[in-house]
Amino acid sequence: MRNAVELENTSNRYLLRGISVCNERLSDETFASTVEYLFRTIDSPKSDQPATETDLETIRTACQLDEPEFKLVLQTLSYLVKRSLKFMLKPSGLQADLTRSRLQLGEHKCNAFVRCWIAATKIVLDSLDGEQQSNQLEDVSWKVRAQLSSEPRQKDKLALGQLELKTSSKCVNLELNSAEIVELYNQMERIQAELDAFGAKA
């Protein structure tokens, strides 16, 4: 248990150091370009690797950081990008999560991150909407995992549900806490009620 706590404390220190570098060393424009790149490439196929490497080199030059700091920034922002996916069903919580006392991402950079997140989320939703005939939901799977709380005063484990939605062409992963799962369930109930009402009128 002690090793797990020490490991998380070390991870938190690297995360906070990475955010500090973003706040103090990156311009808002460079920060936005880096986040946009990560949203675009996080699930990109290997065939796109040459193009993404060229983009990465452009970003590396714009950041004007030494290699360790640049790597730290990429790791930090990659973590935040993946973390942001759990707010797919609750976008209002993303900005609060980025600026809360533990993370303290600067206001302008937080706004830039949210804009990139909105753009990336819209692309996913538009894609799903535009491929309804060929991209039907094929399978749903889930599992529950526990992680240590990231708050200094909370050492309890937090239960998270991992939901995987598989279609013919892609896979969407959501990580939800208990409250978000309840909200998802309530939304599904409302959708079912609307479908039932529509069917009764037909």
Name its key features.
202 residues, alpha+beta, three-stranded antiparallel beta sheet, 7 helices
Quickly describe the structure.
This protein is 63% helix and 14% strand. The chain is of the alpha+beta class and 202 residues long. It starts with a helix and ends with a helix.
Describe the structure.
The chain is α+β, with helices and mostly antiparallel strands. It has 7 helices and 3 strands; from the N terminus they run ααααααβββα. The protein has helices at residues 2-25, 28-41, 49-63, 67-84, 92-99, 107-130, 178-201; strands at residues 137-148, 157-167, 171-176. It has a 3-stranded antiparallel β-sheet with strand order 1-2-3. A hairpin with a 3-residue loop joins β2 and β3. The protein starts with a helix and ends with a helix.
Global geometry: elongated
Neighbour order of strands in the largest sheet: 1-2-3
Question: What gyration radius follows from the Cα positions, in whole Å?
Answer: 19 Å
Number of helices: 7
Question: What quaternary form is this?
Answer: single chain
Which residues sit in consecutive blocks of at least 5 with pLDDT less than 50? Answer: 1-7
Whole-number mean pLDDT: 76
Number of E-state strands = 3
Strand percent estimate: 5-15%
